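Q: I have two molecules that I believe assemble together. Could you output structure tokens for the complex as a whole instead of separate predictions?
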Amino acid sequence: MKNNLKNVLACLASASLLVLFAACAPRSTDTYKHLNDMFSAHYSEIVLTVTNTFDEDTSLTSVYTFSYPSAENVVIHYTVESFGAVSLEGGTEKVTRTGTALITDGELILSTGDDIGISESFAKKGLTFRADCFENAELTNTSFSADVTDVALFLGSPLSCSGMKVSAAFGSAFESLTVSFAAADGSAVEFCYEFTL
Amino acid sequence: MQKIRRFFILSVAAVLLFAVTSAGHFLRLSATAADYYAGITATEGDALLGQLHDLITTTHTRYTSYKDCKNPTYVKKTDPGTGGALMEFYAHENLSSSWQGAASGTWNREHVWCQSLSGPSKSNTLWGESGGGSDLHHIRPTESRVNSARGNNKFAEFSGGSTVTYRDASNTVIGPAGATSGGKFEPLDFAKGDVARIVMYVYTHYNTYSNVHGTTNGRGNSNYFGTLKFTYVVSAGSEDAAIALLLKWNELDPVDSIERTRNDAVYEIQGNRNPFIDHPEYAEAIWGDGDIGGGGDGGGGDIGGGDAENADFHAAVAALVTDGTLAERFQSIAAAVAVYRKLTPAEKNVAQTDIATLQAAIDAYNEAAAAYNGVAEQMNGAALSASGVLCGGGI
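A: Yes, here they are, computed for all two components at once.
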């Protein structure tokens, strides 16, 4: 009898521990399905800001605004900064290229403004949220943050970098998402997404 | 035995004599080159033009022949390239120095001021292959096809046109050498100043003295001298417009070490110098708005206010930031470039060391900026790729 009671208590304890563990750890499958669903939701506009900071007063910022006039169309307005070349005749510190591209059913239909090789840049899949991409994941009802351990899996393609972190704020859909890391040359990089439903 | 000994002694004596003579010559050359303009007292305009005409004609002690102009010994001295080659004039590319009858891919003798343009009409020209037509300050080695493409085209600036390419002996295109359009030829930027200073030299020298306010034609045959106008060789509506283009090119492409080396080498052969290479400020002083400050100083190239400008430039170069942030480096370079752009050609000539320092800082900056741009481009691509906007009609 005592043994049976012991077994029952042991089972209860184990079950409690499992429940406790499950409550504390990120809810892997459901959690990441929810994040992936939010990332795949239809937003009316997304603004992506890419910032490269090379030293305390030297940085480049590029802004891409995606809007979706219909399900099959994506319109991208872009402003891309780069450093200009200097000569004895003069030169500017930064050059800004701007333009607009219309992408329909995955194909670049129309492009105006400065060329930034846009057709090649968009042919990859998006971010993937999976348990095996992250460490130190922290999730609440309105936020997610983690260290990214598998960069290629998370971004969809490999990237030489270190210390990548992701953080996101959301309600029923993403509000903002930031990916930050150090590039191979040591410069600090941030991808910041702002979402509008 | 005695003959051998005598031969040996004579040989040694000859070598010693040559060495002493050569050393003396070079010592004299450097001193004389510096003093060549000691007699120039005029500071501007016709007076300066006249004094320069007298100077370069009276010191022109040896009129070289057209045959001399293809003498490899001379050409190696006057137009040295690298590795024993000569430097082609319009493309500044190496070319074999051996004379091969002006075959394609080899060099020919270019009259920068064409024979057919050395007078009011083709049937009334001042030179062919002598006098001004075989002056080493004037005749330059050019690749034969480039020479043909330049042809009798007048110098000008224009948009578009056909690129003149410089090719090697196997007809492989090495690079551009200028452009032609409708009877006009435009040299590359780095040759424009060279062309302008040659044209000014020829004009000043071979105009007969009364045309250029001189007093003598020096030692030259009287047939070598006559009337020359800039519009003969420059495509322009007036002499003023032609002069304006030459002054512009003189400023755009300052005197470089290639021209200085050449000026010294030709001086050694024929006795006179191209004053517009030694003193590019003379051009503005004669035909432009400039004058030479401190008249009677021997034409030291000291344009009024130039010292102050050069001091500002020197200070700006000294203040260049080479190990700070990219933004700091840009700011310091921009400040130095702003001062540089205010310098006159003469001031730039004096400031060659500072210019080289600035150029090195610019090159290093551009290299760093290009590297940063490469990183930023890669990051933008990664961000866009990660966005996956093409997947499912939305992110």
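A: One point stands out. Chain A has two domains: 26-40+125-197, 42-123.
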